[in-house]
Structures are given as C-alpha cells and as structure tokens.
Amino acid sequence: MTNFFVDVIEMLKPQDITVSEVFLWTAFMKNEVGFSIPVRPYPPEWIFDEDTSDFVPARNVFTWIKATFLNHESEMFNLDHKHLSVFYWPNIAVLWARGGYIKQGRRVAGTAEKVMFNAGGWVRERQENQFKMWFGDVPDYLITIDASYAKYCSDIDFCALIEHELYHIAHKRNAFGFPDYNKKTGLPKLEIRGHDIEEFTGVVRRYGASGELLKMIEAAKQRPELSKAAVHHACGTCLLKVV
C-alpha cells in the first residue's frame, strides 16, 4: 500500500469507509484530468428507475472528495478547501438527486447549503427523521448533485462541479477578517458564501474558463464601454449568486 493510500485511510474515520469503497483505494486511472486520481464515483443506475427514491445518499462521493481534494498527498489537493479536511461524514453530507431543476432559465446541476429548519413540531421532526434515515444523523452542510448530469459529464466537468460546491462552504471570517474557529472544539467555523472572485480564480486556475465566465473574461480584455464604477454596479444584476 502506497503512502498515498495510507494517508487517505488514516485521514478518514473508520465509519467513512465501506466495503464497496475499498475498490476506490486500489482503482486509479488516467483520464481527462491529466494524471492519476481515485476513480470518480457515479450515481447508482437504479436511481433512474421510476419506482425508486428521487434522492440517494452519496457517501462514496464524500469519500472521494476527501481523497481527491482534501488530502495533501493527492495531486488534486486544493489548499483553498483545507478548512474542510477536519470534517467528516455526516457533518458534510452528499446527496444524489435523480435530476436537476431550472432556476432563472438555467439548469442547476449542484447545490451547497447549510442545513436549517424553519419549522417546529411534527414538520421539523419529519424533516430531521428524513436526514437521519439518509445519513444516520442531521448534517451541518449538504451538497446535492444532479445524478443525470453526473452520469454523462466528463471527469473534468465533474471535478469542477464538485469544487464549485466546495467553494460555497467557506471558512467564516471574524470581525477583523481572520479565519474564525469554534472556541470549544477548535474546528473552523463554516458558512455558505456566494460566488466571489476567490471562487472564480480557484476554479479557473484549476479547470479553465467556460460559458458565462469565459464571456466575462473576454469582455474584461476589451476596452471598457463604461466607467469601472458603472461596470461594478451593473455586475450586481448578474446570476452570480448562491444556487
């Protein structure tokens, strides 16, 4: 067993590894990423059957995230996400959704959210019970991935989607702008953060630009039609918000 495997397994708590996921540590491949990474997880085929649940826990995706992006021995380790490396399943949980949905005319393939309940009584108990059935406990943060998208997208696109959602689970800053920590546990305080220049820089640095972001970069290369102040205020109407 290589040092990489040892580091990954030591980093994960025993409950993070299932028998079916042992193959993850021995099956590495070369793909569009350009070097060897743990084989990316795919949604189970049966999630697309009509008589099955629309949502399925994706523990193997979380295990893959820990091994690929949060382990310093991985070639795809990202220092931007280091604050997440000390959290385990189900503090941060991942869920497959059978399909995506449309928001503001665009298909959403993934979301990251802080789990919160805005109800009491049986409504809250029912919601909590659902999470416990899925994950064994109520998670603090939840990443949901469109299984129909993940089934067919490239390795590069899948990695970019996952990292995009990871960037949303940010290390909270204190009043002075420094990373904040829980005084009792010493763990980083987390928060959901919208799209910002740091997230754009991180994703573009690792995967390149495409789509709307590529258009923004190309536009930035041109002579400005308006003042910088006007462009700054106009940007507030774009779709660069948490989804």
Helices and strands, with pairings:
Layout: H1 3-11, H2 22-26, E1 28-29, E2 37-38, E3 55-57, H3 59-68, E4 92-97, E5 101-103, E6 106-108, E7 110-114, H4 121-135, E8 141-146, H5 147-152, H6 155-168, E9 169-171, E10 190-192, H7 197-207, H8 211-221, H9 228-234
Parallel strand pairs: 4-8
Antiparallel strand pairs: 1-2, 3-4, 5-6, 7-8, 9-10
Architecture overview:
With 243 residues, this protein is α+β, with helices and mostly antiparallel strands. It has 2 domains: 3-194, no CATH class; 209-243, no CATH class. 36% of the residues lie in helices and 15% in strands. It contains 9 helices and 10 strands. The chain has helices at residues 3-11, 22-26, 59-68, 121-135, 147-152, 155-168, 197-207, 211-221, 228-234, and strands at 28-29, 37-38, 55-57, 92-97, 101-103, 106-108, 110-114, 141-146, 169-171, 190-192. It has a 4-stranded mixed sheet with strand order 3-4-8-7. It has a two-stranded antiparallel ribbon with strand order 1-2. Strand 1 (28-29) and strand 2 form a beta hairpin. The radius of gyration is 19 Å and the shape is globular. This is Putative phage metallopeptidase domain-containing protein. Residues 63-221 form the Putative phage metallopeptidase domain.
